[in-house]
Write a structure and sequence with these properties.
Largest sheet: 5 strands, mixed
Structural class: mainly beta
Shape: elongated
Strand content: over 45%
Number of helices: 1
Helix content: under 10%
Radius of gyration: 14 Å
Number of strands: 5
Length: 80
């Protein structure tokens, strides 16, 4: 992320790879999962975050979408 993002600006959408390097967040935020469950985090996206879509909520009301992508997508067996 750029310096402005670390300083508090929040892009509309962020993507991270599960188990990848830490991704900084602007201070304390809450992450809302697709099922409505939430997790409070501070400073960076947790490395053990399950794959999926999340809504990032900052303490001052800003929001963004976070996409947590798996390291790899399982391949279906060939059907031919």
């Amino acid at each position: 992320m750029e310096d402005r993002d670390r300083a508090g600006a929040l892009p509309p959408t962020m993507a991270v790879r599960v188990g990848g390097p830490p991704t900084p967040l602007p201070g304390a935020v809450s992450l809302e999962a697709e099922d409505g469950s939430g997790i409070a985090v501070r400073g960076e996206v947790p490395g053990d975050l399950p794959p999926g879509y999340y809504r990032v909520h900052t303490h001052d009301g800003r929001q963004a979408t976070l996409v947590a992508a798996p390291r790899r997508v399982p391949q279906a067996p060939a059907t031919w």
